Structure formats: C-alpha cells, structure tokens
Amino acid sequence: MKGISINACTFIDIPFLCRRTSNFEPAFIINQQKNFEGMKYRTLAGTDLELPVITFGAWAAGGWMWGGSDRNDAIKAIQASYELGVNAIDTAAVYGQGESEEIVGEAVKDIPRDKVYILTKFGMRWDLDQPKGDFAFKSKDNSGADIDVYRYAGKESIILECENSLKRLGTDYIDLYQIHWPDSTTPIQESMEAVAQLIKDGKIRYAGVSNYSAEQMEEAVKHVNIVSDQVPYSMIKRDIEKTLVPWCLDNNKSILAYSPMERGLLTGKIKPGHQFAEGDHRANLYYFRDENITKTNGFLKSIQPIADEKGISLSQLVLLWTLEQPGITIALAGARNAEQAVQNAKAADVVITNEEVDQITQSLNTLKLIK
After folding, report:
1. What Cα–Cα distance (Å) separates residue 90 from each residue in 104, 120, 180, 336?
2. According to a count of CB atoms within 10 Å of the terminal CB, is the N or C end of the chain lower?
3. How would DSSP label each residue in 225-277?
4. Is 23 left (phi over 0), alpha (psi -120 to 50) or beta?
5. What is the mean pLDDT of each run of 10 residues along the chain (371 residues)?
6. How far apart are CA 292 and CA 14, in angstroms?
C-alpha cells in the first residue's frame, strides 16, 4: 500500500476521510475500506500499523490492582471488541504478573496472527532474585502474596522478558514493544540497544516507550526508532499538552493515551461514598475523594446534553473528545466484560464536531479538583 507522510500522518492512496481539529494537529486517515461496524483506524507514525482509534487496554483484565477480575469475562471482552473492529490489544508483563498476557493470548489464539496487533510492555519486574533498578512499590499479586515491583530495564532482563511475553501471548513476534516506565539505574542507550537487537532478531516489529518525557524520548531515539509514547491522558489529566505533545508533533511520533476515562471516574457512574474492592488502587487516588467525585460529576452533568443528543453514553463522549485532541493517535480503553467492551468500541461510530469539542473543553476548563 503506497502513501505519503505529512505531519505525523500517513495519507494512503485509497478513498479516505481526513479530519483535522486544529491548525497544528496531525491529520489522521480513516481507512474506510477497513471499517468494522464504524470502527476507524489511524496509522502509527512511521509504521505500517493501522490501529483502531479505540484500542483494547488489558490492565484491568489481569485483575491485579483492580480488585480482581473474571478470566472468562476478560477473554469474552477482547473477543467482543474484535468483532467490532478492535483488532489491537495493549497489555504488559506486569499486569496480573503475566496473567493479562496469558488472557490476551487465549482470546486471540483462533484469530489469524496477521489480523490482530499485539502491544505489550516490559521493564516492571516483580520476579527478581535480588533487587535491581528503581524500586517502584509494594503490592500483592492476585493470590494475595506480597510482591516488590522494580522498574528495571537492563539488557539481559529485556531479552528475558521478551521471551517470557512471547510464550504467554502464544506468538512468535510482538507488534509494538514498549518500555513501561523509565529506569534511572540503567542508561537509556543500553535499554534501547537491547530493543534494537530484538527488532533485528524478528522478535518485535516496532519499539515504543511509555511514561517517557520529551527529554527521555530525545535520548531514546538516538539508539532505536521509537514510534510512540504511551502516556496517561484524560480530561482531568492533561499535563502532556505542555511539552510532550508539541515534541511528538514536531518529531513525527504517535501518542497512545491510556486511562482516558480516568480509571472509571469519567463514566459518571462513581458516586460519593463509593467503596472500592480490596486491592483496588483507585481507593488511594485523590481523584476519587468524595469532593472530587462530586466536582467531576457536576462537570459531566454539564456535557450530558451533548451525549443525549447523539444517543451515546458519557463514556463514549469522553472517548470521542480524547481522540480529537492534538497529537493523540489512539485511546486505550479497558473493559472487564463484553458489554463494556462493546460500548467502548461503538464510540467510534459517532462523529463529534469541532464546535462540540470546543464546548466541552470550555466547560472542562472550569473544573478544578482538590489535591
């Protein structure tokens, strides 16, 4: 398939629809010949990966830090998403200490390998014989056993992690391999050269990073072609707009937005006094204090008429707004069951206008949470 690259976007020479929401936002291509039930696709900068704008995020599927999950429900969620054109899944070795990757592998085992994109991450070790790297935090695995998690991205560790991920996923290559978090104890050069070797060996197709700053990306791209940065971005967490987004736009790099619904807060379904299950990390986040839940729900109420007019949920409207922000290539949306997965995927069926995006942003700019 031939095409030309303009402003971090691949223009494919087949019938297409191009949308631009600001003077400096890359114009992304929606390949109409590959739509499933209205799903739209954007090309990851500098690659041939055409990812669904709503990509399945499999953190919660692993149960860990989310108060547990049902394995069969998670598998059905991934498969239901695929039926609606969500042919890309993002996971990580540390999610459920390998369980999320196993679930992804089980869910896609009957799908031809070239019909699904597998994205995973490395560099969060819970299984080290002795401490290495940056200590991240203490936690409990899904069985309740204590674990210490380290951010470690030494060369030998990356090679080992890749082999383990390939086995759990049941595949012989990974489409996008991303360092999960920076490791200050290992030179970026060492980590990226290890990833470059994995590309040379055919174990992975493309290299990405996650939670990297613009400065860290500047260093990483000296050693391997980094195509994307996966970072937290939502209506109430917009820090990346200051530095990272401009850098990615200037350097033709994609942004994968994770937690666009801020771990469920922006669904409007969480009310003051909500009790999280034991082990659910959200219980300790300031976003979920009663006063911030109240403030957020007040904002959501102000944009409810837009959702009602389109016949969609608040969650779907939040995803649509996210996808229209400058520099955002795709949004990762998690689901624990098929119903949630279908709702996320169907957000792509709907069109949101520039005027509606501006209206939402204006209302959003009045929301101030208490830290």
Report:
1. 9, 6, 12, 14
2. C
3. -EEEEEEE-BTTB-GGGTTHHHHHHHTT-EEEEE-TTGGGGGGS---TT--PP
4. alpha
5. 37 30 34 54 97 94 59 93 97 94 96 98 96 94 90 98 98 98 98 98 98 98 98 96 98 97 89 80 83 94 96 96 98 92 95 96 94 89
6. 47
Q: What is the pLDDT of residues 327-347, one digit of tens each?
A: 999 999 988 899 999 999 999
Dist CA 327 CA 257 (whole Å)? 10
- Continuous segment of H or E residues that includes residue 175: strand 174-179
Provide the b/e sequence for 245-264 (b: ≥16 CB within 10 Å). bebbbeeebbbbbbbbbbbb
Confirm if 200 and 60 have CB atoms less than 8 A apart: no
33: its two tokens: 């010949």
Distance CA 348, CA 45 (A): 20
Question: Is residue 349 helix, strand or coil?
Answer: helix
Greatest Cα pair distance, the chain, in angstroms, is 57
* Structure tokens belonging to residue 141: 């695995």
Cα distances (Å, whole numbers) of residue 268 to 263, 264, 271, 276? 11, 8, 8, 15
DSSP-derived secondary structure for 85-145: T--EEE--TTGGGGHHHHHHHHHHTTS-GGGSEEEEEE-EES--SS--SEEEEEEE-TTS-
Nearest alpha carbon to residue 69 among 94, 92, 103, 106: 103
For residue 366, give the 3-state DSSP assignment.
coil
180-235 tens-digit pLDDT:
999 999 999 999 999 999 999 999 999 999 999 999 999 999 999 999 999 999 99
d(CA 265, CA 185): 34
pTM beyond 0.85: yes
Q: Positive or negative, the Cα torsion across 126, 130, 132, 138?
A: positive
CB-CB contact of 125 with 150 (8 Å): yes
Q: Which two tokens stand for residue 311?
A: 């016949």
Q: Side chain identity at 133, as an amino acid letter?
A: G
Catalytic residue ranges: 95
3-state secondary structure 179-224: ECCCCCCCCHHHHHHHHHHHHHCCCEEEEEEECCCHHHHHHHCCCC
